[in-house]
Amino acid sequence: MSATAGAAQAAAIALVQRQLDAYNARDLIALLDCYDVDACQYALPATLLARGRAEIAARMAQRLEDPALQARLLQRQVLGNCVVDIEQVTQRFDDGLGWIELLCIYQLREGRIASASFAFGSRVS
């Protein structure tokens, strides 16, 4: 790997980790700072969840209210301008505490997350 490719990969990892750290800290401002102003979030394969920072803020503010919310990184891979994470997310459901596995695909552009796509696993109690 060239020095330039290595630096780009390190920057991609740092950005996605900063977003994950902000999520776990329930820091909406720091989380939104990781996203491009026109970023989109999707449920895979192509269901739009939020478009732009305002909609992402509304969606994430609601999620960050959960005091049990915690994402644990299980695996991370960088492929060009994409970072793929597999996470275990603990959260409160209507009937109690549980967790899901989550596949996250972050497409990066100019030092920000341009899109984030998620595949939600089944709930485990």
Can you put this structure into words, describing what you see?
This protein is an alpha+beta fold and 125 residues long. 34% of the residues lie in helices and 47% in strands. It contains three helices and six strands, in the order H-H-E-E-H-E-E-E-E. A six-stranded mixed sheet has the order 2-1-6-5-4-3. Strand 4 (82-93) and strand 5 (96-109) form a beta hairpin. The radius of gyration is 14 Å and the shape is globular. The N and C termini lie far apart (42 Å).
Draw up the topology in text.
Layout: H1 3-25, H2 28-33, E1 35-43, E2 47-51, H3 52-64, E3 70-79, E4 82-93, E5 96-109, E6 112-120
Parallel strand pairs: 1-6
Antiparallel strand pairs: 1-2, 3-4, 4-5, 5-6
Provide mean pLDDT, rounded: 95
Major beta sheet, specifics? 6 strands, mixed
Order of helices and strands, N to C? HHEEHEEEE
Extended strand count: 6
**Poorly predicted sequence stretches spanning 5 or more consecutive residues:** none
The chain-level structural class is alpha+beta
Provide the gyration radius in Å: 14 Å
Strand order of the largest sheet: 2-1-6-5-4-3
CA distance, first residue to last residue:
42 Å
Count of helical stretches: 3
What sort of overall outline do the alpha carbons produce when their principal axes are compared? globular
Specify the helix fraction band.
25-40%
Regarding quaternary structure, what we see is: single chain
Classify the beta-strand content into a percent band: over 45%
